[in-house]
Amino acid sequence: MNYDLSLLELKIISLLDTALSISELAERTSVTKGYTSRAVASLKDKGFVETSKRGITKKVTLSANLHASKLKTLLSRRSYMPFAELLHGSGLPIMAVLASGSADFTLLQDESGVSKATLWRWIKKFKEHALLMFQNNEYALSHDLVDLKEFLDYYCSYSAASILKEISPAGNFITAKGFEFIFSMKGEIVHENVKPSGLTAISEYIPLMLAENHYFYSSRKLSLEEIAVHTIVIDPHSKRNLTYVILFILKTELDRDIFLKIAKRYRVEEIAKSVLKLLNTWEKPEEPYIPDPAYVKEKLKEYKIKMEKNKYFLK
């Protein structure tokens, strides 16, 4: 599935207050019927529109999918903003990254997959229309753009589910972050944009008793910190998962600040903080889902992971 939106596609969505024929859309957009028909087919693949035949005439209507209605409302309510220009091309994946939370330039470029020059151009354009805030060396969408964030969340989830059907009909969607997503499935999968993550990736460092099959769809390389966060996201209140996250942190000595920053973007920051609190204090946790320190220490001995080498985490 191609999630990009062209200027013509965005224009068609803005026009669909009622059912319109291909001829009517072509006339209102001032393009040929052929271009209009192809744009409608693309929008249908992306879940934005539905088509039906009335005699020999094909009628186009807005679909009932949430991302379609959210975008239509956004384009109508904020008609004073040039969203047709801001959401097409590379602008869309950049905004999708920011919908998950603030990001510095490096992370924004990494997750959006655009070049430095392209990213700078879009940042300049977003700033011109007051879409971006910049604080503590990080960019974020303006606080009043709740409707834009809602559209992006719904569209990213819909796109993820559609892509997953294409690459693995047996896969189970877990969550999306931008146009990347986590999923599980029985068995292994070979795909250029699919990487093992969660306990599947951790098992390469720490042998597990039970096989896990969790994957991440993305064109970029995963960091150790993101693998740890994915393990939390997959089952946030699993003592077993969190135990292995703790063992993984100690074995790989991953970066604490990066771990927390990524956890915030996945909305599991509080759980990540509780994990690090145990590593800093080794006191019995208040949270029922955080494993008992004594049990963790037993597992450390079992896997021959030495605590004294991890001064960054331990007092």
Which labels suit this protein?
315 residues; alpha+beta; Arc Repressor Mutant, subunit A; 4-stranded antiparallel β-sheet; 15 helices; 13% strand; elongated
> What level of helicity do the residues show?
40-55%
Contiguous helical run count: 15
Over the alpha carbons, how many angstroms does the gyration radius reach? 23 Å
Backbone structural class: alpha+beta
- Arithmetic mean of pLDDT: 93
- N to C succession of SSEs: HEHHEEHHHHHEEHEEEHEHHHHH
Content of β-strand = 5-15%
Strand order across the largest sheet: 6-7-9-8
> Between the first and last Cα atoms, what is the distance in angstroms?
49 Å
Which regions are unreliable across 5 or more consecutive residues at pLDDT < 50? none
Shape: elongated
The total tally of domains equals 3
**Main pleated sheet:** 4 strands, antiparallel
Can you give a write-up of this model?
- The chain is an alpha+beta fold and 315 residues long.
- It has 15 helices and 9 strands.
- The chain folds into 3 domains: 7-63, Arc Repressor Mutant, subunit A; 67-150, Arc Repressor Mutant, subunit A; 168-302, no CATH class.
- The protein has helices at 7-15, 22-29, 33-45, 66-77, 83-86, 91-99, 105-112, 116-128, 146-167, 198-202, 224-234, 239-252, 256-265, 269-281, 293-302; strands spanning 20-21, 49-54, 57-62, 132-135, 138-141, 172-177, 180-184, 194-196, 214-217.
- The strands form 3 sheets. Strands 6-7-9-8 form a 4-stranded antiparallel beta sheet, with helices on both faces.
- It is elongated and about 75 Å long.
- The model has no long low-confidence stretch (mean pLDDT 93).
